[in-house]
Amino acid sequence: MAWAFGMSLLASAATATPLSDYRDYDDDLMRDLERTVKFFEPDITAQNADAALEDAEVLAGGFRYTEDYFRRKPGTEDAVEISRKGGKLIAEARASIGKADFEAAAATAREATTVCKSCHDIYKPRLAR
Ligand code: HEC
């Protein structure tokens, strides 16, 4: 059954790296997102609406970027979906901040953070967080 073993090796190699070429990926933006996501919820809890809205702007831009990026790649519809979900959550958080409902905004901000991880789990397996 050596052939079967060989086939399954090939198959698992293919699923382990759905996208192996990120040379055109904007890592600087990702690092900006990482910094921003750390301030987002604390800014909201501190009821610092201006800072929180600035954070939201950066994060919304990040999710727009990942949505566009993965839309151009074949077979990554789930990453596009994940990005849209992130964008939607940021829009919701913004609306809550606008209404000074900081409690709802903080909950939404926490949920948005898990969106980063759900994409990394699939598309960045070596550095999943
Ligand atoms: C739809 C997919 C997707 C979403 C959403 C996403 N990322 Fe990423 N991220 C990636 C991929 C793919 C890489 C790996 C790029 C590479 O290997 O060059 C990456 C890399 C990173 C890195 C490492 C950059 C480096 O120095 O190499 C950080 C930090 C990061 N992301 C943070 C975030 C944060 C924070 C969020 C959410 C606000 C987020 N990402 C949302 C796909 C995503």
Automatic annotation (TrEMBL):
GO terms for biological process: electron transport chain. It comes from the Bacteria. It comes from Methylocystis bryophila. This is Cytochrome C. GO terms for molecular function: electron transfer activity; heme binding; iron ion binding. InterPro entries: Cyt_c/b562.
